[in-house]
Design brief:
By secondary structure, the chain is mainly alpha-helical. It has three domains: about 55 residues, no CATH class; about 70 residues, Helicase, Ruva Protein, domain 3; about 70 residues, no CATH class. About 50% of the residues lie in helices and about 5% in strands. It has eleven helices and four strands, in the order αββαααβααβααααα. The strands form two sheets. It has a two-stranded antiparallel sheet with strand order 1-2. Helix 4 crosses helix 6 and helix 7 packs across helix 8. It is flat.
């Protein structure tokens, strides 16, 4: 994506003719190779602005694999952070053994505009600056996030709460319709709404359903 036009022409020629010439040489040398290319640029936009050759783009773009940025991969920042920390601690001889719960929460909450390089640099700094055996958010130069322990129960409740709110919103406040969307009975949905503490958010749904009595099959 950053190749100047002069090199783009040479690369295109190689891809088309499968030959190269050594610097200072006069003989064409056939080369059989597979090409794997990577870029952090939007090549389609660069083609439109004439910064990248269209013929080279289509010559390279036979099989395209998009690697999403770190901010689109929930959980990866913590996993990669632990890997980098173990490596940097080993290389520097530091006796840091892990990330504190607050540091884990801070890593999970950060948007990572600098992607993997930013994560790697922050973890390297954390391994150097940590005064105890665990890296804290301040060592990473990150603001402390919600330090509540994120367990499976918490994650499930959060997902259920969001799904119910979306289903009710798409059902114009009808609990019966929302229950059908979610694949549960109305009594089950009522119980979930109460247990998740979101009854106040769906009062309109309750009022819309007052004229729809619960049937015996639903109650069972």
């Amino acid at each position: 994506g950053d190749l100047p036009m002069s090199l783009q022409v040479k690369l295109l020629r190689f891809l088309q003719e499968h030959v190269i010439e050594r610097v200072g040489g006069r003989k064409s040398i056939p080369v059989d190779a597979r090409i794997v290319s990577a870029t952090n640029q939007n090549l389609e936009q660069r083609v439109e602005t004439q910064q990248f050759r269209m013929d080279l783009f289509y010559r390279l773009n036979i099989v395209s694999v998009r690697i999403p940025p770190l901010r689109e991969r929930p959980g990866d920042a913590v996993l990669l952070g632990r890997y980098f920390l173990a490596r940097f601690a080993r290389e520097s001889g530091r006796r840091v053994i892990g990330l504190s719960e607050q540091a884990v929460a801070a890593l999970a909450a950060h948007p990572w505009p600098g992607n993997i390089r930013e994560l790697e640099n922050r973890i390297r700094r954390g391994a150097i600056m940590a005064e105890g055996r665990f890296v804290e958010p301040a060592d990473l130069e990150l603001a402390p996030a919600d330090a509540a322990v994120i367990d499976l129960r918490t994650a499930r409740q959060r997902a259920e709460r969001e799904a119910i709110q979306i289903a009710i919103a798409h059902s114009q406040g009808s609990i019966a319709t929302a229950a059908r969307r979610l694949g549960v009975s109305r009594p089950t949905l009522y119980a979930l709404i109460e247990s998740l503490g979101i009854a106040d958010l769906v009062k309109a749904g309750y009022s819309n359903d007052q004229s729809e009595p619960i049937t015996e099959s639903e109650a069972q």
